[in-house]
Design goal:
This protein is an alpha/beta fold and about 250 residues long. It has two domains: about 1-150, Alpha/beta knot, CATH 3.40.1280; about 185-245, Trp Operon Repressor, Chain A (Orthogonal Bundle). It has ten helices and nine strands. It has helices spanning about 15, 20-25, 65-75, 95-100, 120, 140-150, 160-165, 200-215, 220, 230-245; strands at about 1-5, 30-35, 50, 60, 80-90, 105-110, 125-130, 185, 190. It has a five-stranded parallel beta sheet. Strands 3-4 form a two-stranded antiparallel sheet. Helix 4 crosses helix 6 and helix 8 packs across helix 10. The longest helix has 19 residues, at about 200-215. The chain is elongated.
Length: about 250
């Protein structure tokens, strides 16, 4: 896979490409990553990338021409790259979306700044993504979130396919609690089932704990899941326990 990010601060991406999953994917030849400096596509001596918006108002905006030139230079032949913008009006970034993007061959992400991107450029993008209802100082943070989420889904990137298969949101719900050594931490013990060696019981416990955690913290996710009769019966028991605890 190839991923390019358009930014006026390409140096922000260097640390991420030199450690962790991104580095492993690059070293294995699974990922070609480049942070492209938008200023390279300006034509004045100050390398200007912004101007005031028409109609007035606070703040500045990216000039459309450098963005158009950069996108055209990258997207050759035309349409061979999926062009992505990050903006509040975009679709909420989810694990399912990351999985879809991981199946693409070439992604280019526009890391906007200031008050946004000229609408004529937005209309040239294939996908617009929001990473949450929060205002960031720049699109670089959102872009690296997307790159990281996509990269770790590339086959072989993490070295262990199972490590990504059971994670939160991959299965449609939050992940079950995890434990490691020591078995007893100042009186807090690991659940007996996890050290029993009984794989079927462990799988059942993990399923139930994932359901419990999802019910407590993200009940909205359960509406989108295909629950078994056993799942529903367990969730009813959890709800009954919660009602009893509240009196």
């Amino acid at each position: 896979m190839k991923i390019n990010v358009l930014s006026i601060f390409p140096e922000l991406f260097a640390p991420f490409a030199q450690v962790g999953v991104m580095k492993m994917a690059i070293d294995k030849g699974l990922l070609e990553f480049e942070a492209v400096n938008l200023r390279d596509y300006t034509h004045d001596r100050h390398h200007t990338t912004d101007d005031v918006p028409f109609g007035g108002g606070a703040g500045m905006m990216f000039l459309p021409k450098p963005l158009v030139e950069a996108l055209d230079a990258i997207d050759r032949p035309a349409g061979s790259w999926l062009k992505i913008g990050v903006a509040p009006q975009g679709d909420r970034f989810t694990q399912r979306m990351a999985e879809d993007l991981a199946r693409e061959e070439r992604l280019v992400i526009v890391a906007g700044r200031y008050e946004g991107i000229d609408e004529r450029v937005m209309e040239r993008l294939d996908v617009v993504i929001s990473v949450g209802d929060v205002v960031l100082s720049g699109g670089e943070i959102a872009a690296i979130e997307i790159v990281d989420a996509v990269t770790r889904l590339l086959p072989g990137a993490t070295g262990n396919v199972a490590s990504t298969a059971d994670e939160s949101f991959t299965s449609g719900m939050l992940e079950y609690p995890q434990y490691t050594r020591p078995q007893d931490l100042d009186g807090q013990k690991v659940p007996d089932v996890l050290v029993s060696g009984h794989h079927a019981n462990i799988a059942a416990w993990r399923r139930q704990e994932a359901l419990r955690r999802t019910l407590l913290y993200r009940p909205d996710l359960l509406k989108q899941m295909e629950l078994t009769s056993q799942d529903r019966a367990y969730l009813r028991r959890v709800l009954a326990e919660m009602r009893d605890a509240l009196g």
